[in-house]
Write a structure and sequence with these properties.
The protein is of the alpha/beta class. The chain has 9 helices and 21 strands. Strands 5, 6, 7, 8, 14, 15, 16, 17 and 18 form a 9-stranded mixed sheet that branches. A 6-stranded mixed sheet has the order 9-3-2-13-20-19, with helices on one face. Strand 11 and strand 12 form a beta hairpin. About 40% of the residues are buried.
Length: about 375
C-alpha cells in the first residue's frame, strides 16, 4: 500500500521541520523525507546572520532589521514549542526565579562593524532608520570582542554599532522543534536516509532501508533547497527540461573557529571586520568572565587548509593584536550562493522549491513559515 499524505516534504535541517509543524497545525497530513540519517548532520544554519557592511543595500538593511530583538522574537517564538528566554546586559542582574535556564536564549548584543567606507556606511544605515552609534579610538576597540588594545591601538580605529541585535542558541532551538515534530509524526511518516527519489505521474517512489516505497501526495512535493539536495534537484529539473530554472550554485564554505582567550570576552558585543565576525561563544545565559571567542569567516580555498590558517592568523594576530592563540574547535558548513526565492514546477505531482533554507536561523524560520503559509492559501 502506498503512503498517503497531503504534502510530502524533502530536505534536511530546520526548514522542513517548521513546514511540517505548520501543516500539522492546519490539520494536513505530512510525509517528511530526509536524505541524511540525521536532520542536522548538514548543519546549514547559523546562530546569527553574517552581515558584512560592503555596499549597504536595501536588502542589507532589511536583514539587519530582522535581527533586532523585538522582530526576531516575533519570528522565532510562535514556532518554538516552549519558552524562549531573552538576555541583555540590562537584564543580567535581574532575578532568575521565573526563567527556564535550559530554554533557547535570545541574546541581545551590540553589533559593531569596521566598514571599508565608514562615512558611506554610516549615512546609509542612518537613511535606513537604524540610528548607528559611532565610536573611535579606545571606545571602538573596547567594543570589538577579543581586541587587545593594550598591545597597540590605531588612532584611526572606528566602528559603527547597532544595539539589541540578537543571536540564538541554535542547538536548543533546532532540537526543540525536532522533538515536537517527532511527537506528532509516526516513524512511517518521518523517514531518514531515503535515496533514489522519483516524481512520477502516479506519485513518489524512493528507497528506504533497502526497500522501494511508493507515496501519494495530494498537494504535491515541497523541496527545501540546501547543498545536500542540490544534486537531486538538478537531475529533477533536467528531467523536466527546466535546467535554466535553477540559478548557478557555487556554494560558500564557512569556518567557525573557537579560540581560547587569556582575557575575558565581553558577552554583550559582536565585532564584524571586513574578514570575520567575532563574538563570545555561549550557550544559555552568559556568565562572566568568558574566555572563549568564536570567529566566523568564509573559507579560503580548501576548508581548514593552509590559506584558512593563514587568514585566521592574520585576523587574530594582526587585527586583534594577540601574540599567540589556541584553537579549541572548528565547525564547517557550506551555504548556497543563491538568493532566497521560490519556484514551482507543474505536473501530476506539483513541486514547489524554496531556497534560503540555510544561513542565519532567524531568516530561515521567517522564509520557511511564509513559504508554508503560501502553500496552503
Amino acid at each position: 500500500m502506498p503512503l498517503e499524505c497531503d504534502v510530502a516534504l524533502l530536505g534536511t535541517g530546520l526548514a522542513p521541520l517548521l513546514a511540517a509543524q505548520s501543516l500539522l497545525r492546519q490539520g494536513l497530513s505530512v510525509l517528511l523525507l530526509n536524505p541524511d540519517h540525521d536532520f542536522f548532520r548538514e548543519n546549514s544554519e547559523l546562530p546569527l546572520e553574517p552581515v558584512f557592511l560592503g555596499d549597504v543595500e536595501p536588502k542589507t538593511i532589511e536583514v539587519i532589521r530582522r535581527q533586532h530583538l523585538d522582530r526576531a522574537r516575533d519570528i522565532l517564538a510562535p514556532e518554538f514549542p516552549g519558552a524562549i528566554e531573552v538576555w541583555s546586559r540590562e537584564s543580567a542582574g535581574l532575578s532568575r526565579s521565573f526563567r527556564d535556564l535550559s530554554a533557547p536564549f535570545l541574546r541581545a548584543r551590540q553589533w559593531n562593524w569596521i566598514p571599508r567606507s565608514h562615512d558611506d556606511a554610516y549615512l546609509r544605515l542612518l537613511e535606513g532608520g537604524l540610528n548607528p552609534l559611532h565610536s573611535s579610538g579606545l571606545a571602538a576597540a573596547r567594543r570589538f570582542p577579543g581586541y587587545n588594545w593594550q598591545r597597540g591601538l590605531d588612532p584611526a580605529f572606528q566602528a559603527l554599532g547597532l544595539d539589541r541585535l540578537v543571536d540564538i542558541d541554535l542547538e536548543r532551538y533546532r532540537n526543540g522543534v525536532l522533538e515536537f515534530v517527532q511527537t506528532r509524526l509516526s516513524h512511517e511518516r518521518m523517514l531518514t536516509s531515503i535515496s533514489g527519489l522519483e516524481v512520477l505521474d502516479s506519485g513518489l517512489r524512493f528507497l528506504h532501508e533497502g526497500s522501494a516505497v511508493q507515496a501519494r501526495a495530494a498537494r504535491g512535493l515541497w523541496v527545501f533547497w540546501t547543498p545536500r539536495v542540490s544534486s537531486w534537484l538538478e537531475k529533477f529539473c533536467a528531467s523536466r527540461k527546466q535546467e535554466k530554472l535553477l540559478p548557478a550554485t557555487p556554494g560558500i564554505a564557512w569556518e567557525e573557529w573557537s579560540l581560547r582567550s587569556r582575557d575575558p570576552i565581553d558577552p554583550s558585543q559582536v565585532g564584524i571586520s571586513q574578514d570575520a565576525l567575532a563574538w563570545a561563544r555561549i550557550e544559555g545565559e552568559p556568565r562572566e568572565p568568558w574566555l572563549e571567542l568564536n570567529v566566523l569567516m568564509p573559507a579560503a580555498g580548501q576548508i581548514a587548509g593552509a590559506e584558512s590558517f593563514l587568514r585566521l592568523s592574520r585576523f587574530v594576530q594582526s587585527f586583534l593584536n594577540w601574540d599567540r592563540f589556541r584553537i579549541r574547535d572548528l565547525r564547517t558548513r557550506t551555504l548556497l550562493g543563491v538568493e532566497p526565492g521560490e519556484w514551482k514546477i507543474e505536473g501530476a505531482v506539483p513541486v514547489r522549491i524554496l531556497s534560503g533554507c540555510e544561513g542565519g536561523v532567524i531568516g530561515v524560520v521567517d522564509r520557511a513559515m511564509k513559504f508554508a503559509s503560501r502553500g496552503v492559501a
